Amino acid sequence: MNNFQYSRAADIADAIRLLAGDPDAKLIAGGTNLIDLMKENVERPSRLIDISRLPLSKIEQTADGSLRIGALVPNSDLAYHPQVAQRYPLLASAILAGASAQLRNMASVGGNLMQRTRCAYFYDTATPCNKRSPGSGCSAIDGLNRNHAILGTSPSCIATNPSDMSVALSALGALVLVAGPAGERRIALTDFHRLPGDTPHIDTNLGTGEIITAIELPPRGFALNYSYLKIRDRLSYAFALVSVAAGLELEGDTISEARLALGGVAHKPWRSLEAERALRGQPATAAQFSRAADLLLQGASAASHNGFKIELARRAIVRTLTQAASATPQSQARKKIA
Ligand SMILES: Cc1cc2nc3c(=O)[nH]c(=O)nc-3n(C[C@H](O)[C@H](O)[C@H](O)COP(=O)(O)OP(=O)(O)OC[C@H]3O[C@@H](n4cnc5c(N)ncnc54)[C@H](O)[C@@H]3O)c2cc1C
Ligand code: SF4
Questions:
Q1: Which has the least CB within 10 A, 25, 147, 157, 182?
Q2: CATH number for the domain including 41?
Q3: Structural domain total, the chain
């Protein structure tokens, strides 16, 4: 039994003050990841700072046409929000591909961005894990690594980021709005999560005492030609082996703008500007999609059990781009049954 303090933050400034004042304190929003990790003894916070009642649950359009989404908006409300379903269906599809309806009702936007890896060794406190216990070693590198990363790995950690939402946000060019002891700042989603390097215990570039207050989606939503494809061991309620978020803008059969990001393959959503550049100005054909897949997967390398992911990702990229180009997305956000 680990004792911990519980505080309900009165406002954002109070949350920042409590968080900055105790390096072992943790924010709690929906609790769907943090509580599991506490039960497994992986997370042992000295204090829980409950932010669930802070006024961060609004979705509003900004003056320049962007969409600002509060950090406490539940994942399900976000996916079914009319502006998201109509303008950013790629994001809605990615969210609805994750977890279960019950979990999505509890899970917050901020918590989804901050959720931790699903590497089984990270959860198993009887095994070495550099992410859980820095310097102890990585059990996955010579262990069961079928679900692990093929891009951006390091000798310290080959874990993947499990968030579906983040993959779509990366492709859409979202910004993460944060507030902390030094004020407010914006971080591009693509710079928010980190590669493991030799500090795999640090998942993100959030600074000490900083809290996510919102995310912001730029006006460009790729609402016509998009697809989110999630490949997993069973059809629902499972994390991605490989996922692909694709958004295209077409002029006739020619690609004028392209966005492409992968999930389930790296410590962060994997996006390559080079692959996107290579698609622009090209016809929307299988040959061009294949070329983009090669660029996106440049440098991919397998551990002992996950070599299949490289070919799986290659095929998934081509399939997702084909679906996006023909405006037949893998899945669409449907209206919630009243
Ligand atoms: C069985 C199961 C299946 C799942 N399947 C999927 C799936 O397929 N795809 C998928 O993407 N996800 C999946 N999830 C994960 C789920 O999406 C996350 O648990 C959820 O999004 C976390 O949100 P939360 O609000 O509950 O976070 P919490 O558990 O409250 O917090 C998680 C972390 O985020 C931090 N945090 C929370 N809010 C903020 C903030 N505003 N600023 C800074 N830090 C913050 C907390 O301190 C904590 O470290 C699954 C979860 C479960 C339990
Ligand atoms: S892959 Fe990362 S999370 Fe998994 S055991 Fe190795 S260090 Fe830990």
A1: 182
A2: 3.30.43.10
A3: 2
